[in-house]
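Intended use. Records like the one below are meant for learning the mapping from a protein sequence to its folded structure. Do not use them to infer anything beyond what is encoded.
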Amino acid sequence: ASTGRLFVWINSGTCRAAVDGVDRGTVPTGALELAPGEHTVICTLRDGSTKTAHATVEAGKSTSVRFTVER
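Structure written out for the chain above:
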C-alpha cells in the first residue's frame, strides 16, 4: 500500500479537522487515506479555538489522533 490511514477522534462534541491545511470534514472522521510521513492535524472547535496535533502515517498501517476538550 502506498498510503496509510489516519483516524481523528475528539472526547466530547465535534470539530472541523484540517490535515496539512486541507479541510477533511467533521470529527470524528472515517479513515483518511494519507501519504506516509508527518502530518499536522488542526481541530477547529465551534467557538473558533483550535487544537493542533502531529501524526506519523506509515504505508499500510493505521494511526489515530485524539483531541481532548474541556466539557
